[in-house]
Amino acid sequence: MKWKHRLNILVALSTLLIVLVVFWNSPYLWLWIAYIFSNFLLILVFGIVFLRFQYFYPTIFRNIGKEVILTFDDGPDPELTPRILDVLKKHGIHAIFFVIGRKVQEHPEIFQRIIAEGHTIGNHTQNHSLFFAMLNTEKVGKEIDSFSETIKPFLSEKPTIFRPPIGYTNPKIARALKRRRMKIIAWSVRSYDSFKNKEALLDRLVKYTRNSSIVLLHDNLVQTADILEEYILQAKANGIIFANQEHLKKFIHEINK
Ligand SMILES: [Zn+2]
After folding, report:
1. Residue 51: pLDDT band with limits 50, 70, 90
2. How far is Cα 218 from Cα 41, in angstroms, rounded to an integer?
3. Nearest residue to 122 via CA among 142, 104, 145, 99
4. Catalytic residue among 124, 128, 218, 247
5. Which single residue of 1, 23, 86, 132 could bond 165 by disulfide (Cβ 3.0 to 4.6 Å)?
6. Residue 218 is a catalytic residue
7. Which comes out higher in pLDDT, residue 112 or 6?
8. pLDDT in tens, 123-150
9. How distant is the alpha carbon of residue 25 from its chain centre?
10. 25 Cα to the center of ligand 1, angstroms
11. Which domain holds residue 24?
């Protein structure tokens, strides 16, 4: 949230002022200034990198109900997304797909299937630029709006939920989202599924999934598709209930209130 950013600036400036007055003639003045500046920078970097910190924008990490919400980023993928959809269908589970607009244009039939099977769509930008956090407000807005335009022919309702590429936020992204009244959905369980060790991935997911978790996965990674069913079975055996279409509708309705 923005007040945290303002507070950080205020604390840095006021301590700087005090130090300037008190240590003006001290040989350690520059050391003090460097100390204040590095503290300010450290907090700022934390705010940019960790969504959990909610430094620039309010963020949702958990479901309101007790069901576990699976989220899949960076698709649609022509081979892996269908495999993931098969597993979800078999178990009556619905997920949130944070798709990339450019990939929707490349694989419209897969995207259509995601929608037809009742999953929820989230905005993960048009191009998923690695430098998204370095774009200006106008370009950030363009990335968000181009995504909405891309999926318009397939989906009547414009998604109100957003997940920033790489998970970084800053004041420009916050401003663009606020103007569009969009919500950031983060996660409470990060799978680290980009690491290829399937056993470690499965163990981690089963171990950390709790009631109300939001789980971050990727539907463009083969190891994720490979372990998904086993994960669902083991989590279910632990008493976990995964969200279905109704649960997701309720979740979206609640967060948009
Ligand atoms: Zn992504």
Report:
1. confident
2. 31
3. 99
4. 218
5. 132
6. yes
7. 112
8. 999 999 999 989 999 999 999 999 999 9
9. 48
10. 51
11. 2-49
pLDDT tens per residue across span 34-48: 999 999 999 999 888
Shared domain for 38 and 145, answered yes or no, is: no
Instruction: Report if residue 54 sits inside a domain.
Output: no
- Give how far the C-alpha of residue 220 lies from the chain's centroid of Cα atoms, to the nearest Å: 16
**71 and 37 in a common domain:** no
The CA 13 to ligand 1 mean position distance, Å, reads 36
Same-domain status, 102 and 188: yes
pTM: 0.91
Q: CATH number for the domain including 108? A: 3.20.20.370
Tokens representing 125 are 């930008």
Bridge pairing between strands 214-218 and 69-73: parallel
- Regarding whether 90 and 9 lie in a shared domain, the answer is no
91 is catalytic: no
> For residues 216 and 62, what is the distance between their CA atoms, to the nearest angstrom?
11
Distance 24 CA to ligand 1 centre (A): 48
The active-site residue out of 73, 74, 77, 219 is 73
Q: Which residues surround ligand 1, an ion (CB under 5 A)?
A: 73-74, 165
